[in-house]
Every structure is written in C-alpha cells, then in structure tokens.
C-alpha cells in the first residue's frame, strides 16, 4: 500500500477518534465561557459576546457523529463517505474560524461594553436588589471596591443613604474580622481600594484568550484532516484508473 495512503488513513482515523475527544473539550470550553459570562451578565450591554461560546457548543454536538462517519469512510475508502467527511470538516473549520474571528473582535470591545453597564449598576446599588447582591458577590470574590476604585462610592445613592458615609461591607478585605470593618472610609486599611472593572475585564480577556487558543488548535487539526482526505481520494482515483495489461505478444 502506498505510503501516502497509509499516512492519510492514519491521520484520518486519528482525527476521527480526536473528534470524540474534541466534542468533550469543546463542550467544556463553551460551557465554561457561558458560565463565566453569566456571572457578569448584568454588566454586559450586548449578548453577542456569547456567540463564540454558542458556536463552540453547536460544533461539539455534531462531533461524535462526524467521528463515526470519518472512521467508516476511511476504513472502507468510500468515495461518497470521504466526500461527506471532507464537507463536514470544512464546515466545522469555517465555524471555528468564525468563532476565532468573533472572539478576536470582541477582545478589543470588552472594556467599552463593560464600563457603562457597571457604572449604572453601581449607581443603582441599594443593598437589596438582585443586582446589588451580584455587586456584593463580585466585590467579595474579586476583592475589589467600586468601578475604578473605592472613591466611586462617594456621592452615590448608597453612600448618601447610609448616613455615616460608608461603602458596602463587601468592600472589606477577606482576612479582616467583620466586626472591625463597617465600610467607613476612616478605616481605609480594612477596605479593598482597587476597582472591579479592571479585574472583571482581565478575567473576561483571559477566558477569551483560552477559548481562542483551543479553537485555533482544533482548526489546525481540521486543516490537516482536509489535506488527508484529498490525498486519500486522489490516490484512490489513481488506483481505480489503473488497469494492468494482460496477455502475450505474438
């Protein structure tokens, strides 16, 4: 058997098996991105940043079936099966490239889309609404206070309503005893002073970078898979077109 055919078959079988692992991997990445963005949903003005994650999950759904088609088509060297496999790989490749491009575009817009909704949420903070509880959770988990820094609370609805000009106790440092921290600015040593926007932006950027690296890796594999299908199909055509001479010459 031709070395090119053996190599192509090996690559395609590995890719077929890889599709099942990829399905699990892409599902995890998509769910992780969706879950991360869900935590900061009140601060995001548009929903289109979720598109890359949705595309990733949709791609993962068809991975298992694609793996089966790839294995059967490769082993039997079916022209139709290989053609279908090539089309599927091409469609998945396009979807992954689209997700990568969308992620790359949104990376530069995270700060812009994040700032205004966060400022508005902090203005409406009263310590009772669900949005207020999310802000408290955010400040406690990320150990931050305010949008840019703790001074964002000065003059806010909450700051004026407390009567003692204090920030929410969720601004208190994690290692401080609750009784010692009341949120008053006179006890600044007990408070986190760094703003939350920078930390949220950093988390979202990291998630996008992680997702884009995974997508890029899968896209490269799909590219080599398409080359292998082409090689195997061409070799099969050459083999079918070859008819050995028989008989003797007088």
Automatic annotation (TrEMBL):
Reply yes or no: does the keyword Methyltransferase apply: no
Instruction: From the Swiss-Prot or TrEMBL record, state where the protein is found.
Output: Membrane
Note the Pfam families from the entry: Tetraspanin
Which cellular component appears as one GO term in the record?
plasma membrane
Q: How does it sit in the membrane?
A: Multi-pass membrane protein
Record keywords, A-Z = Membrane, Transmembrane, Transmembrane helix
Family note: Belongs to the tetraspanin (TM4SF) family.
Q: Which PANTHER family match?
A: TETRASPANIN, TETRASPANIN-36
Query: What is the protein name stated in its UniProt record?
Result: Tetraspanin
Q: What's the name of its gene? A: LOC114606720
